[in-house]
Design goal:
Blueprint lengths: L1 H49 L11 E8 L5 E4 H15 E14 L2 E12 L5 E13 L2 E9 L1 H7 L7
Parallel strand pairs: 1-6
Antiparallel strand pairs: 1-2, 3-4, 4-5, 5-6
Length: 165
């Protein structure tokens, strides 16, 4: 009887150890995927904004049907060309752009980017200093959706469009 109990505990222990190894591997794989997504994502947005490379918005980095949402979950742009047009606005409207990642983290295929955008508005000469957050969805190493949140009132005030009372 004693040998049977020892055998039973040994089998239970081996099963638990195998399950634990499997869970550890799954966790490590998930962490590696997030790290790869963050690396790709930060490199692409550095190219687009700091190096003014709008052509980095392409089907290598973005899904063909990528969606850009506004703050209220309305669609602002769809597809690669729509995405390019939305962000080319910043490249043509601002000079001296400095785009900074304050923090980027994620879970699975979702990332959160805390960012800061600085630049000089070409038409007014006003300096822009705006921070915000972007929710990002990725699939198979490509960006499939982004939703930006920032202070639109502050943005417009810096451009001189609304007066601060």
């Amino acid at each position: 009887m004693k040998k049977l109990v020892i055998l039973l505990f040994t089998l239970v222990g081996l099963n638990a150890q195998a399950q634990s190894k499997k869970e550890c591997k799954e966790l490590l794989d998930a962490e590696n995927q997030v790290a790869a997504n963050v690396k790709m994502y930060t490199e692409i947005w550095d190219k687009i904004l700091n190096h003014r490379d709008i052509d980095a918005i392409n089907d290598t980095n973005f899904a063909k049907d990528v969606i850009l949402l506004n703050q209220k979950e309305g669609i602002r742009a769809t597809g690669i060309e729509g995405f390019k047009n939305a962000f080319n606005y910043y490249l043509t409207t601002f000079s001296d752009i400095k785009f900074t990642f304050i923090d980027v983290w994620g879970h699975g295929d979702k990332l959160i980017k805390h960012w800061n955008f600085q630049g000089k508005h070409n038409a007014t000469g006003n300096k822009m200093n705006l921070s915000g957050v972007t929710l990002v969805k990725m699939k198979d190493g490509k960006i499939i959706e982004e939703q930006d949140f920032d202070d639109n009132l502050w943005y417009n005030q810096q451009l001189g469009q609304y007066m601060v009372k």
